[in-house]
Write a structure and sequence with these properties.
Largest sheet: 6 strands, antiparallel
Organism: Amycolatopsis thermophila
Distance between the termini: 40 Å
CATH architecture of one domain: Sandwich
Strand content: 15-25%
InterPro entries: AraC-bd_2, AraC_XylS_family_regulators, Homeodomain-like_sf, HTH_AraC, HTH_AraC-typ_CS
Strand order of the largest sheet: 1-3-4-11-6-9
Protein name: AraC-like DNA-binding protein
Shape: globular
Helix content: 40-55%
Structural class: alpha+beta
Keywords: DNA-binding, Transcription, Transcription regulation
Number of strands: 11
Radius of gyration: 21 Å
CATH superfamily of one domain: Jelly Rolls
Pfam families: AraC_binding_2, HTH_18
């Protein structure tokens, strides 16, 4: 493969880095380096364009794929040659996609998600240009967390926008957008990602014994996705999940201060990442980006959580 490879914790790679005649060859090597060993071919003649935004977020990897139509296969021969063991989730954001594995076919429209397993053959098919967010986690860890023996019963099943797993998909879509504009903020908000993938696997398998835990994870994903809305209230969160305020408070009984404090801390963590990343950014701009009603509220909450004013924090964060 000629050209840069995704070896860092985050980066962008595009077929624009090579001559048009070599674009698909470069793309094929790029997706093999980023995911697992794959065979691939374009679905249409002519110019091929592709772009990856890849982030290694410690407990999982996340990649936004923008590309022309293609057919990608994980074959038995490639599995035997390189036995990477991952659970992957494809979340469609533009165009249409199809995932085939274990005798099933998942048709994906924007907002929908499907899981697949790198230890068995699968096919991804895209007739035309598309965009997906792909989340990749070690398979054995996911099985251990959920108690499942394998993922055969949940692969290539379309998980809808309005299903419980749709909340998980929404979280990763929001995280991927943030990754392109604020990588430090994305890293801060990615702490729930692995647990949410386990939740998606459990939900797809029809597991319900740990329903309270799964509901709390869904709510935490919702808070991460919507924390920048200054009008978001506890009542809004309860309504979004069709539960009472009392039930919401019970779910977060183990968190000091409850769900309201969890939301404030998500906002403060995002603010800290922005202050580190852009020391010259005005404080009122940081406040708005993180969902605070104004600079005064931002100052008060930030000081309560950190013991420092935003300005003091910014002055010490580079030391």
């Amino acid at each position: 493969m000629s050209g840069p490879r995704p070896t860092g914790s985050a980066g962008v790679w595009s077929t624009s880095a090579v001559a048009a005649a070599r674009a698909f060859e470069y793309w094929r090597d790029l997706i093999c380096d980023t995911f697992v060993q794959l065979a691939a071919a374009p679905t249409r003649p002519g110019r091929f364009d592709g772009r990856l935004v890849h982030a290694d977020l410690d407990s999982f990897e996340m990649t936004t794929v923008h590309a022309s139509g293609q057919r990608v296969r994980r074959t038995p021969q490639l599995i035997a040659r390189a036995g990477e063991e991952y659970l992957l989730a494809s979340i469609q954001t533009r165009g249409q996609g199809r995932i085939e594995q274990d005798g099933r076919v998942a048709e994906l429209a924007p907002g929908q998600m499907a899981l697949y397993d790198s230890t068995r053959p699968y096919t991804l098919h895209f007739d035309g240009p598309f965009e997906q967010v792909v989340v990749q986690v070690p398979l054995n860890g996911m099985l251990a967390e959920t108690g499942l023996r394998d993922a055969r019963g949940v692969t290539a099943v379309t998980l809808g926008v309005d299903s419980p797993a749709g909340v998980v998909a929404q979280y990763f879509r929001g995280l991927a957008r943030l990754q392109e504009t604020d990588p430090l903020g994305a890293a801060t908000l990615a702490t729930q990602g692995r647990a949410l993938m386990a939740s998606a696997l459990s939900l797809a398998a029809g597991q319900t014994p740990r329903n309270d835990v799964l509901t709390r994870r869904r709510i935490e994903a919702f808070l991460h996705a919507h924390h920048a809305d200054p009008d978001l209230t506890v009542d809004d969160v309860a309504r979004a999940f069709l539960i009472s305020r009392r039930t919401l408070y019970r779910l977060f009984a183990g968190a000091p201060g409850g769900v309201g404090t969890v939301l404030r801390r998500i906002r403060v963590e995002h603010a800290k990442s922005l202050l580190r990343a852009d020391p010259g950014r005005p404080l009122d701009s940081v406040a708005v980006a993180c969902g605070f009603a104004g600079e005064r509220q931002f100052y008060r909450v930030f000081r309560q959580e950190t013991g420092l004013s935003p300005g003091q924090f910014r002055g010490t964060s580079g030391q």
